[in-house]
Specification:
It contains twelve helices and 34 strands. The protein is mostly beta strands. It starts with a strand and ends with a strand.
Length: 842
């Protein structure tokens, strides 16, 4: 390290010793032990300009009788040097044995400046260094600050940084301190290797840790920057991963890092000793608490005989049991798990010991570090308060809830002794982070075309824990806006209140001939029944209207239109029945009958009550490899409004790891739309395509209008089912950080039972018998006596397909490409073998 100095004089380093040798700090001069003892007032001070004489004298403490002996003078000298106020301190003997203290004061720092820093701002560096403007200059402190600045850069991944301090002398014993910084380039992680792993491949383990290897797209993220703290945290992540999968003896022995000067990066190697994989051999419950039935805790255990030993399941079981014991009046009960390994059978016998713990109460809960978040937002995450019995399980649950809020960079709850032996103080240390987001999102899909969204959101509005978001969407076929607000604790109960206001416009495209406009409002209440079970109750009210492009609303047949609205309807709505090229023709053999009927009805109001019950045990919501996700939804329309129906939908996904990093996915889904009272609108029917069976176009499955002169719109159905089997596998020849996976799948499903309108008395369109398979007229306009109502295909054909997919967790957002070939299909279905969709936030 280079240290520049522009002072005319350096630090004096003179050691003068009288009498017997002693060890002394550099720059110190002692009087001999034979010097005459003096009083504090007889000490003379020279060379001081800012520090008062009495202040310097105060460092010399007299002994008995108010006299200074040699020991007191030595101690005073050392104390003066340690203050850092002086470049040099000397003690000499004057006439008559007088003690003379000669000092050379350190300069005062006029200003501190940083040169060459581009990646880290001056404000951040100023806050980190100990040297301060208008403070005392200290060479030792400057050296410490130099090391601190270099460490800050290393934490951000720049290990080639060079920091050179320079001191510029100014008048009146003042100096300017300049730190010249050569930042260097980022030092990334060039390789991540694992030694000793047999049960899991290195590819799979790279998905567990946070550190990433550098690649061409690393500039969009920071996971590839070497951070020793992150690497150390990765050791714990690996250990937890093995413990979740039955390896009770696992040890992550070391995380070795080596700098490669040729690659200008680090090679990280994790050394693992896996041990054997264990299953649960037995589960037992024991207690020393009188009148407590330990077997009653069996229902709160998540550990099952025969399953893989999972330390997280054990921990969750302990938490549930301890909380339940507290509810039953055993506030100080402590659940301690134990396990006996059978090394030959590779089983673990788990024992939950329920005992009476120490009678300890919470004296106070102290919050530290929340400068923006209100205290009550933090305290409401605790199920305990001051004066309650101390329960470690409830404290751990509160810490986990606070982390899940995503308001803080770090959160840690510790305990300190209280005012007595049975009292503890909870200390909640936290570091807040930014909770606001402004994003511009872009994407493209084969259904919606190009799409862009601008949104602004705040997760901790006004520090009160509120969520608010405003978003505007503009695309090729879809556009609109939405406003959302969530109060997570309604009336101080753990019930979330959500409010959504939205407007959406869907334009006609190659998949649907009509457009829709929807304006709606939806309040909802969310309840967390368990960590893996949630309930949402909602009310939705929205107004919807349909529109047709000009060429479909226009009469294109010659002569008098064959079928027109009645004169009364035409007069009421200002329709010119004599027009052959205006909007007067509601039925000219083009637009489907249900669409035209909806157009004539105008705006429709839907008022519905609904709920969703969700069960989620996925290991990762964004990129799951294990677990179950179940959703059951029902909506009842008819609480006022213009339509009535009951819509029930079930959806389940099960992920399970197979062999060699291959993940299996089973996806089952189904839905029923039940008619209540009046006819069901076509717009309320289920519309299916690649969301049910890949290889088919959007709205490409199910009942369809067969009018040869029309658009042959998909009519939808009131019942559907679907099943899918998929295998997802990595590309082992590509770096993990690329984020590419392949998929092969087989889909099957069906959509059937159209129950919408088939006739329209207003225009004289009838079908006899209803839903007959009569052949539509081949003449436009239809001739008398032919089938003039809606004729459609309503067969319950099983659609199936097989295909391959490419999944990319890219820095631009999740992208997916699918190519599927239909195996079985309906006569009038529409296929689309290739499909692409994705988007991002940047």
């Amino acid at each position: 390290m280079k240290f520049g100095l522009r002072l005319r004089g350096g630090l004096l380093a003179t050691l003068i010793m009288f009498g017997a040798p002693v060890v002394a700090p550099v720059g110190a001069v002692f009087v001999s032990s034979s010097a005459l003892a003096q009083t504090v007032q007889s000490i003379s001070v020279e060379g001081n300009r800012r520090v008062e004489v009495e202040t310097i004298r105060s460092y010399f403490k007299p002994g008995p009788g108010g006299r200074l002996d040699q020991g007191a003078i030595d101690d005073g000298l050392k104390a003066l040097i340690e203050t850092g106020l002086f470049q040099d301190v000397r003690i000499n003997r004057g006439p008559g044995g007088q003690v003379i203290v000669s000092v050379v004061e350190n300069p005062v720092i006029g200003r501190i400046a940083f040169e060459g820093n581009k990646k880290i701002k001056d404000e951040q560096l100023t806050a980190e260094v100990q040297s301060k403007a208008r403070g005392t200059f200290s060479r030792a402190m400057v050296q410490s600050d130099t090391l601190r600045i270099a460490e800050i850069y290393r934490r951000s991944g720049r290990y080639d940084v060079r920091v050179t301090p320079e001191v510029i002398e100014q008048p009146n014993n003042r100096v300017d301190l300049i730190f010249t910084i050569v930042e260097g380039s980022k030092t990334g992680v060039k390789s991540i290797d694992f030694v000793g792993n047999v049960a899991f491949s290195s590819y799979r383990l790279r998905d567990v840790i946070k550190t990433r290897e550098s690649n061409l797209l690393s500039f969009l993220a920071s996971g590839d920057i070497y951070d020793p703290d992150r690497v150390e945290a990765d050791r714990d992540l690996l250990r937890r991963f093995y413990l979740k999968n039955g390896f009770a003896d696992v040890q992550v022995v070391a995380a070795l890092t080596e700098y490669d000067p040729e690659k200008k990066g680090f090679n990280v190697t994790f050394k693992i000793e896996e041990g054997s994989q264990y299953r649960v051999g037995a589960v037992d419950f024991r207690t020393s608490i009188p009148n407590f039935d330990p077997s009653s805790m069996r229902g709160y255990s998540r550990v099952n005989v025969g399953s893989l030993y999972n330390v997280e399941s054990v921990e969750k079981s302990v938490e549930e049991m301890q909380i339940e014991a507290s509810r039953r009046g055993y506030a100080f009960a402590v659940v301690r798990p134990g396990g006996d390994r059978n090394f030959e059978a590779h089983t673990v016998s788990v024992v939950f010991n329920i005992d009476e713990g120490p009678r300890t109460y919470i004296e106070r809960i102290n919050l530290r570090g929340n400068t923006r978040t209100r205290d009550y937002v933090i305290r409401r995450e605790f199920d305990i308060s001051e004066g309650d019995a101390y329960n470690r399980a409830l404290v751990d649950r509160a810490e986990r809830r606070l982390k899940n809020l995503d308001y803080f960079k770090s959160i840690k709850i510790t305990t300190e002794p209280g005012s007595s032996s049975d009292r503890v103080i909870l200390i909640v240390d936290m570091e807040e982070k930014s909770t606001g987001d402004f994003s511009i999102s872009g994407g493209y899909s084969t259904t919606d075309g190009a799409l862009a969204e601008v949104s602004i959101s705040e997760r901790n509005l006004l520090g009160r824990g509120l969520f608010a978001k405003a978003a505007v969407t503009y695309g090729q076929y879809a556009r609109g806006y939405s406003l959302s607000f969530v109060e997570p604790y309604l009336l101080d109960y753990r019930v979330a209140l959500g409010l959504d206001l939205y407007q959406r416009e869907q334009k006609s495209n190659s998949y649907i001939s009509y457009g829709t406009k929807t304006l709606g409002f939806s309040p909802r209440l969310g309840f967390s029944l368990r960590e893996d079970l949630a309930l949402q109750i909602r009310y939705s009210i929205y107004r919807q209207e349909i529109s047709l492009p000009y060429f479909l609303a226009n009469c294109n047949n010659t002569g008098t239109p064959a079928i027109n609205p009645s004169p009364a309807f035409a007069s009421l709505n200002g329709i010119d029945l004599t027009s052959t090229n205006g909007l007067g023709c509601y039925s000219d053999g083009e637009a489907s009958l249900p669409v035209r009927r909806e157009l004539a009805n105008g705006k429709t109001l839907t008022s519905a009550l609904g709920y969703t019950l969700s069960y989620n045990t996925l290991d990762n919501n964004k990129n799951p490899t294990d677990g179950l996700l179940l959703d059951f939804r029902q909506d009842f329309a008819g609480v006022g409004g213009d339509v009535t129906y009951l819509k029930s939908v079930a959806d389940g996904k099960y992920y399970t790891p197979l062999v060699s990093d291959i993940v299996g996915l089973v996806h089952l889904q189904g839905g029923v739309l039940t008619k209540i009272g009046s006819d069901i609108r076509m717009l309320d029917h289920f519309q299916m395509g690649p969301n049910l069976v890949r290889g088919f176009a959007p709205n490409g499955i199910g009942p369809r209008d067969l009018n040869p002169f029309g658009t042959q719109d998909a009519l939808g159905g009131t019942k559907y089912w679907g099943a899918s089997l998929e295998l997802q596998m990595p590309f082992w020849f590509l770096p993990k950080e690329v984020g590419l996976k392949g998929a092969v799948y087989a889909d099957a499903g069906g959509l059937f039972d159209y129950q919408g309108p088939t006739t329209w008395a207003l225009t004289g369109e009838t079908t006899t018998p209803k839903n007959s398979n009569c052949t539509p007229s081949t003449i436009n306009p239809p001739t008398a006596g032919t089938c003039t109502g809606l004729v459609y295909d309503n067969g319950n054909t099983v659609r199936s397909s097989v295909g391959v997919g490419l999944i990319w967790q890219s820095p631009f957002g999740p992208l997916r490409f699918d190519y599927a070939v239909p195996l079985t299909k309906g006569k009038y279905d529409r296929t689309q073998e290739f499909r692409f969709g994705g988007g991002t936030t940047f």
